[in-house]
Structure to design on (126 residues):
């Protein structure tokens, strides 16, 4: 199954943005792409090989951001009990999927929830 081009472009933008955050590192547990800070995942990017729909999973503590993310087409609380901790899975291939800019805002929010204070301070000075 081919990945829709605009969904892939959004996915690549989000990945690039996440990797640009202070201390961010990409890893591939379970064959999925994740980006971690301080050995903790702040964004799950899944796989980009077309075997599963493209999506982004982020931790949103801010209630309005969390509620907004859940209004996106196909969005749902993340599986494996992560939804209870504020994680939201947002598919990128639906019509009306969020813009890359909004997704990057959510990735930054997720990063700020998980990153150590010194790295957040570094981000704030940029």
């Amino acid at each position: 199954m081919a990945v829709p081009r605009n969904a892939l472009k959004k996915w690549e933008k989000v990945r690039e943005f996440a990797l640009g955050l202070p201390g961010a590192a990409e890893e591939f547990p379970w064959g999925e792409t994740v980006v971690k800070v301080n050995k903790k995942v702040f964004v799950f990017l899944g796989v980009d090989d077309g075997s599963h729909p493209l999506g982004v999973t982020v931790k949103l503590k801010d209630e309005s951001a969390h509620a907004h993310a859940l209004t996106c087409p196909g969005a749902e609380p993340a599986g494996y009990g992560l939804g209870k901790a504020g994680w939201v899975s947002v598919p990128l291939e639906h019509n009306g999927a969020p813009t890359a800019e909004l997704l990057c805002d959510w990735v930054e929010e997720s990063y700020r929830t998980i990153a150590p204070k010194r790295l957040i301070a570094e981000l704030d000075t940029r």
